Amino acid sequence: MPLALLGLPSAGGDGPGWIRTELGGADAPLTIEETIPRPVNVLLDKRQRPGLEYLDYRGRTVPR
Question: SUPFAM superfamilies given for it (predicted)?
């Protein structure tokens, strides 16, 4: 059941992608500078869509 029908806010999880850090390694395609704004923008966009979603760093729904 959509969360909005229950009177609950939308919710989401975010997969930030493979990030070039000490943990992610030098071969990762994304830098910290590229990565930080993306989840913020995805979450801001998500406010307009009720329900629970798991989204990738581009705002696309990750299949179950």
Answer: NAD(P)-binding Rossmann-fold domains
DSSP assignment, residue 61? B
Inform me whether the pLDDT recorded for 3 exceeds 60.
Answer: no
Residue-wise pLDDT tens digits, 7-64:
555 666 667 788 999 999 999 999 999 888 887 887 788 777 777 788 887 778 888 7
Give the burial class of 42: count Cβ atoms within 10 A of its Cβ; 0-12 exposed, 13-18 middle, 19 or more buried. buried
End-to-end CA distance of the chain: 16
**Token couple for 11:** 């919710």
